[in-house]
Amino acid sequence: MELILEMLNFVFMRRAIMVGLLVSLCAALLGVSLVLKRYAMIGTGLSHVGFAAIVITGVVVDMIPPAWIMGFPPLARMIEFSPIILPMLVVVGAAFLLLRLSESSKIKGDSAVALISTSGLAIGVIVMGLTTGITLHICNVLFGSIFAMSAADMYLSIVLSIAVIALFVLFYKQIFAVTYDESFAKATGTKVELYKSMLSLLTAVTVVLGMRMMGALLIASLTLFPALSAMRLCKRFLFVVITAAIVAVVCFFAGMVISFAYNLPPGASVVGVNLVVFLLSSGVALIRRGGRA
């Protein structure tokens, strides 16, 4: 308890925990649908596109003369939010492109994700190779930099996270129908394409927000591990969603405590805790089935 109180004394820790809990909750809610629809790795694909967008944004910002920024406050405000807003616009576009590609009979879901993922990563690396003097910290982009979050980033992340959660709860029945059986959903009058697009939009927003704390290489764990752990313990969709949300929140907070206590990278610590919970839940599932795989 003393360790937690000491951790909460720091402003950057309070910001990180507040945003991280909300983003983890968003990722867990969406992750159940993504895993069931065989899109578990969409977070990786979109995060690699986000990586390219962040690199390009950093290059563009570095090209702006400092005198312009100091003499034009609205420009300074735009630059302050640019690490989230501009990559988010690009990732949202990539999410809709991925949706269209996956509907093609020639490019299935996993192939479309791989296509988007490798292309985005390659573009980011090429831009970095052609640019000199860039101030972007590549390790922060790849592995997260949640402790470097500003107050403006925190407020924007909180607003967007609450919006994602609200939309998921509001359209829960439609998302459930689209997740399990698109054909039946269409037959009952559900606008399947609309809700698939909404799911892609919410996923894109969550991925960009999650990149700040997990990085481009680890963001997929937020949507993957809690959903898989919950599916080992529950069968009904609603119970799986609730369990995944609880697992995500608990694992994130535990990972942050471990990170603070042992001076470890926060993103990797959160993934490590999620891995332990997944293994434990898998063990419980095996015991329930009498040891049968």
> What series of H and E elements makes up the topology?
HHHHHHHHHHHHHH
**Class from secondary-structure proportions:** mainly alpha
Kindly report the average pLDDT value.
83
Q: Tell me the strand percentage band.
A: under 5%
Classify the helix fraction into a percent range: over 70%
Shape: globular
- The end-to-end distance, rounded to whole angstroms, is 39 Å
Task: Give a topology summary.
Layout: H1 2-8, H2 11-36, H3 42-63, H4 66-71, H5 73-102, H6 109-130, H7 138-143, H8 151-170, H9 172-180, H10 182-187, H11 192-214, H12 220-233, H13 237-262, H14 266-288
Helix pairs in contact: 2-8, 2-11, 2-12, 2-13, 3-5, 3-6, 3-11, 5-6, 5-11, 8-11, 12-13, 12-14, 13-14
Write structural notes for this entry.
The chain is an all-alpha fold and 293 residues long. The protein is 82% helix and 0% strand. The chain is built from 14 helices and no strands. It has helices at 2-8, 11-36, 42-63, 66-71, 73-102, 109-130, 138-143, 151-170, 172-180, 182-187, 192-214, 220-233, 237-262, 266-288. Helix 2 (11-36) runs parallel beside helix 8, helix 3 (42-63) crosses helix 11 and helix 5 (73-102) packs across helix 11 (192-214). It is globular and about 65 Å long. The two termini are 39 Å apart. The relative contact order is 0.17. The model has no long low-confidence stretch (mean pLDDT 83).
A few lines on this structure:
By secondary structure, this protein is an all-alpha fold.
Give the key terms:
single chain; 293 residues; globular; mainly alpha; 14 helices
